[in-house]
């Protein structure tokens, strides 16, 4: 028994302690601080050791509780430490919550030593507005629990209820009249209010040591969580909700009594300014991953509204937008990668003039945000730019622009739950990124081509800026299906070219064809350089110089050149070849005929092993198609034996496809690609036909995605599965097994937003479900 207790006796001690605790500044949480939204599990893992946790405070004259790396619950490394080493003051921490009529506070506590015990309190406001301790609990040195009614302490649970020297789990379910207390999964008692007035709301919680002398109370707290949705019922009408803020230069979202999902109040964003957005920002406890849920009622959407997550990115100290999602005026969903908005759902997913239940879920790896509307998953989107997201610290809801006005949205019942495990959508499995090659303060990017020799996988990628006049390639191999990689500079067939395309021929030979061609006199032919390996890429032949010929004059594809003294040819050659049983090869190329206003997509044909090429046909050309023109075509045999070409038209623009049933002599009119009624935008597509006759389409921008044609002919495409988000969108795909593949990408090109200082080429194993 503590000396202080023995000296005064039980009744005297309890009277003194009660008076001291009531007089101490164990008060309601300051409303100006960032509140901990309902549902967040605060594990302190991203908070600095030795500091008071973000958003929490130490009352004046009290000792500080700080983040500690000495112990953590559930295999975590950090926790909150209340360590009483002072004979003159408590050790106290106060943390605000979003005001709510009721809340459930759960946490883990590890009492190392408690000669006095420790305190747990829910703070709030009484009817009439006075702030104070609403529910006040005392864990004694023997593990018993008491509760305080404003005048005296009463027993709640017997000795031994709380274990000293072990982690205990607590839950305090506080309402307007009482709080039920559970310890280690068992309800142990009910505490009454620490006063006689009616409770208006609960606004915070507090942990503290249990007295000033003697010292020695040492308790760790971890995994703190509340689970009550923010309904704005106790918030002042026409005011910004407590703890939230309006960014400088923006119009405010305020509490409204006009409409509510539950109760009578909600948050209203009513855009009536032509020169500013209406925006509200609400902090969350710094965390990895989130499950943000909110009810939204769009009254009218001239442009739409946005939901954003804010946090930090690797290498940046400032808080910034890290995930950015929008609902369009037509009720469709879009996401933003830092350069462009991509629509990923059909119109009408979010209903106008009705309450919708939205959920934005980000897993702990913070690579993807998934959005569900009314219980149905509708969107997957990535972060902004190339940097890794390190934490999430706030969410933001806003109107979708400045002019025109007219966006009016009500928001209610907001919660921010943790999301440590967000299942990947669909049945396609995407493995973790494996580093193929990396370099710091230099460039590696765009793994344009890869091949499976049977003994190993080979991938080639650029080591230069993405401009015509630059050169330099690298090559790497894997003999374990992409589990590990080894750069192979001595085996690189074209180290000084801009890039080259790899193919495995029917006889087992490997063919490498240079991406760039160089004009010959007369502009109807151009040099094509290639090399062949007869031993799986261990060695290569001397560079062969053949020709591609066209029926009309070509126009140089660029005014600059990668080879000083030579003019660029009219076309560049991309992707692996298609080979017929008789050895005829077909090669994709795009560029310009003389007079072309946009790119022209060609199919070339070779009957001498890829040395010389003639023009088989124009796959597609239009002087008026939106963007750059038809280009970067992936060409493959489909399940029915026809040739399918999938083409880019521009960055973030819709792809098109065409079909030939006569070996590429003629083609159907270009048809826009769609999945589930949504345009499929992308660049640098790749096609792979599986042994079971399913056709796979791998493409980029934004990110890298995989779509499946179940009939093997490209008649229809599944909604895409995102393989990776943070990349230049120029990658490649090869088959490694009946249902397994290796996908390749990078961590951004030289022009990418927020590109890391370390350039990386990666591979991921993709497994598609069997039929």
From TrEMBL:
Q: Which reaction does it catalyse?
A: Hydrolysis of alpha-(2->3)-, alpha-(2->6)-, alpha-(2->8)- glycosidic linkages of terminal sialic acid residues in oligosaccharides, glycoproteins, glycolipids, colominic acid and synthetic substrates
Which residue stretches belong to region Disordered? 470-498
Question: Recorded E.C. number(s)?
Answer: 3.2.1.18
Q: What are the protein's UniProt keywords? A: Signal
Taxonomic source organism? Kribbella antibiotica
From the UniProt record, list the coiled-coil ranges.
none
Q: Which residues form the Sialidase domain?
A: 532-723
Q: Which GO terms describe its cellular component?
A: cytoplasm; membrane
What GO molecular functions are on record for this protein? Answer: exo-alpha-sialidase activity
State the signal peptide span.
Answer: 1-34
The UniProt similarity line reads:
Belongs to the glycosyl hydrolase 33 family.
Q: Which GO terms describe its biological process?
A: ganglioside catabolic process; oligosaccharide catabolic process
Q: Signal: present as a keyword of the record?
A: yes
Q: What is this protein called?
A: exo-alpha-sialidase
Tell me if Transmembrane helix is a UniProt keyword of this record. Answer: no
Tree of life domain: Bacteria
Q: Which PROSITE patterns match?
A: TAT
